[in-house]
Amino acid sequence: MRIIIADDYQEMSRRAAAMVSSQVILKHDSVLGLATGDTPLGMYKELIKLYENKEVDFFDVSTFNLDEYYKLSIENKQSYYYYMNHNFFRHINVKKENTHILNGMAKDITAECRNYDQQIKNDGGIDIQVLGIGANGHIGFNEPDVNFEAETHLVKLDEMTIEANSRFFSSKDEVPTTAISMGIKTIMQSRRVILLASGAGKADAIYKTVNGKICPELPASILQLHPDATIIIDKNAGKLLSDD
Length: 244
Prior knowledge:
Elements: E1 2-6, H1 9-26, E2 31-34, H2 41-52, E3 62-65, E4 67-69, H3 80-87, E5 99-100, H4 109-122, E6 128-131, E7 153-156, H5 159-165, E8 178-181, H6 184-188, E9 192-197, H7 203-211, E10 229-234, H8 239-242
Parallel strand pairs: 1-10, 2-3, 2-6, 3-5, 6-9, 9-10
Antiparallel strand pairs: 4-8, 7-8
Helix pairs in contact: 1-2
């Protein structure tokens, strides 16, 4: 596991964008696993700049998103479908048919999850997977006590996750309590993984991810076993590591 401690959020975002863009430059038809939330926004902005400067071309790239809220329509501004199109896809030349986001409105969620994993396999697997991390150590929406062998699946969101995500909604009551997420097994099959974290609120989760026991109670700890995992964090998120 490689750890990069950046001076601040901006540097963290630039370092992450550099890794993703390098992947695409070296392999024009790369398969990218993408994340949502506040943390990767800076990375997306940096990737858009690189595209606008003609330093990277996304035309042959395919993307698969980590997760989506259950029973939230794509028109809803809190859906991850809206997030990805508003913050990234519409600003680059990726083909719409090559972007894949789980359908939270699917009538048969089991089939939706199974087909999603099959699509990833059909595209040759994910070359580089971007992850955020929750204060409780979740990656994707894989909450504590998750089954490490799970592939893409429907999950019940932890109370801490619902509370954290309530800032994006008018009230906590509007936050979906379930979501569809790539499972730990799906994530771990990615060839490379980048985990991003910013802020002191993530420091404990980062410390335990790097130094703690590998256990379902802290889902991100499984990344200790990944053959090519990089953690890119700012100084605040890495403050407990720096104290070691």
